[in-house]
Amino acid sequence: MLDDITNYPEKVPRHLTWSHRPLQALLEDSACNYPDAPATSFFGGVLSYRELDQEANRFANGLIGLGVSPGDRVAIHLPNSPQLLICLYGTLKAGAIATMVNPMYETREISYQLRNSGAEIMVTLSQNEMLKKAIAAGQDADLRHLVVTNIKNYFPPALRVAFTAFKEKKEGHRARLDASRSQIWLMDLMKKQPTTAPGVTVYPTSTAVLQYTGGTTGLPKAAELTHNNLVANVEQVRAWLYDLKEAQEKMMMVLPLFHVYALTSCNLIFALAGQAILLPRFDLYEVLATITKQKPTIFPGIPAMYAAINHSLLRGSADKKVDLSSIRLCVSGSDRLPTDVQEEFERLSGGLLIEGYGLTEASPVTHANLLSGARRCGSIGLPLPDTEVRIIHLDSGKDVQPGEEGEMLIRGPQVMKGYWSEIEETDRVIDEAGWLKTGDVARIDEDGFYYIVDRRKDVIITGGINVYPREIEEVLNQFHKIAEVAVKGLPHKLRGEVARAYVVLKDNEQSTAGEIRQFAKERLADYKVPHKIEFISELPRSTLRKVLKRKLDENE
């Protein structure tokens, strides 16, 4: 346990005193202490902490006006933007529960999340593709209100005018809403609302976010993350990153905020009264230009992002004026960080790039590497304060010795309440003593450093986002020409992994990879669509007819 680790950082307390407060208090405290400090920057448009907090209050009051009560669910279907943060914190201020919907989702996926969470209100973007899918999903899920925002709403004035004149129509951002179908503009909803916080009591033990994940197996489930869970994880990470300075840091926020790793990163910068530099997506040119111009000090990311930057700078395709020197600290998560990517990025930026580990069910961070001292190649580091870890034998369930492999279990204040409306699934992954089964095979060395050996759950990580083979298989099995299919991860230089589908066609049927991928594209987000289709005569199986995925590419 923590007290037995001899290499624990001297500047990091092993145990913390928890504040037990609602998540939105992080924003409110910074707005009180640093009202004029910049909270967000979005293509040059800046909101101060006072303004961001007031906008969140207006949205909260607008939700209450629509009949939202504590415990109701509000779906947020937006890319990184001030609107996403306004709606997130406003939802929490109203006592409601937020569920973040991936803006890349197809209609079927959005509908599933709306129905599963019971959300009756969703906020989406006016962009044609997103709006069309949101409307269709809302009709399928009996959505009560659809709130729509235009991406330009928080642009600086000159950019907003230019966008309206030259890009809005061309890029499909103009929309006409139907009030008779309870469609309303976000700015109209907020327009006449007071900027003071609603008088709603929000208990720290209540659920703040339903964060969807495949869990250890199967279709997406919602991890119930409480206010206490999320605030505790921010306080743990802040204690670990002990040299961060209050009201002085700038964070490059290009990780998608529908992902809990990005959400906790953003909560951290608000707890520090720093500035979140928001970008809607990872466009390499835009990222490099933004770093050079706005000079972030912190850049949380995934290995694929750092690899792409390295590749661009090393081959000379990036602007020669690119300057990464402002970056002091990067924390890499969601996938294993290759040593060569780590070392090259540190050389190019002059900053520190460390690897961490977490999972959605733990809000998400549980481990991180040291800010100073000797490197442990391939290690996920040490547990954060008050995070207990066990490694148990995969069969017997007994604790293993250092150096031996087993499933890693976590216990701590960041561990979720459970899976939403999934009592049996919750009981399967969290035992009576509060230990969470991670589904990951790990080992610990004699100095207390942890290493992930393999993934017990059959998950593909593409660009830092979890993709669950079973979901892809269920979609492809609906194609009338396919007899059976198996999906597994294929290594990819920049994205980490991509999905590959091994397809067995029905007798006398013919098909092409393009035809099958098109079928998948109509039903799955782009990053879930198999990168490659392999046609085979039969799937390898065990004597019990279980598909042996490890044998699918034995000859490669």
List the helices and strands and how they pair.
Layout: H1 25-33, E1 38-42, E2 45-48, H2 49-65, E3 73-76, H3 82-93, E4 97-100, H4 107-117, E5 121-125, H5 128-140, E6 145-149, H6 157-166, E7 183-185, H7 186-190, E8 207-213, E9 221-226, H8 227-240, E10 250-253, H9 260-271, E11 275-278, H10 284-294, H11 303-314, E12 329-332, H12 339-349, E13 352-358, E14 365-368, E15 382-383, E16 388-392, E17 406-411, E18 418-419, H13 423-429, E19 436-444, E20 450-455, E21 460-462, E22 465-467, H14 469-476, E23 482-492, E24 496-505, H15 513-521, E25 532-535
Parallel strand pairs: 1-11, 3-4, 3-5, 5-6, 6-7, 10-11, 12-13, 24-25
Antiparallel strand pairs: 1-2, 8-9, 9-18, 13-14, 14-15, 16-17, 17-19, 19-20, 21-22, 23-24
Helix pairs in contact: 1-2, 1-9, 2-3, 4-5, 8-9, 11-12
Tell me what the structure shows:
The chain has 556 residues and is of the alpha/beta class. The protein folds into three domains: 3-10 and 370-455, Luciferase, domain 3 (Roll); 23-349, Rossmann fold, CATH 3.40.50.12780; 460-551, GMP Synthetase, Chain A, domain 3, CATH 3.30.300. The protein is 29% helix and 23% strand. It is built from 15 helices and 25 strands. The chain has helices at residues 25-33, 49-65, 82-93, 107-117, 128-140, 157-166, 186-190, 227-240, 260-271, 284-294, 303-314, 339-349, 423-429, 469-476, 513-521; strands at 38-42, 45-48, 73-76, 97-100, 121-125, 145-149, 183-185, 207-213, 221-226, 250-253, 275-278, 329-332, 352-358, 365-368, 382-383, 388-392, 406-411, 418-419, 436-444, 450-455, 460-462, 465-467, 482-492, 496-505, 532-535. It has a five-stranded parallel beta sheet, with helices on both faces. It has a four-stranded mixed beta sheet with strand order 2-1-11-10. A four-stranded mixed beta sheet has the order 12-13-14-15. Helix 2 crosses helix 3. The longest helix has 17 residues, at 49-65. The protein is globular and about 60 Å long. The two termini are 42 Å apart. The mean pLDDT is 93.
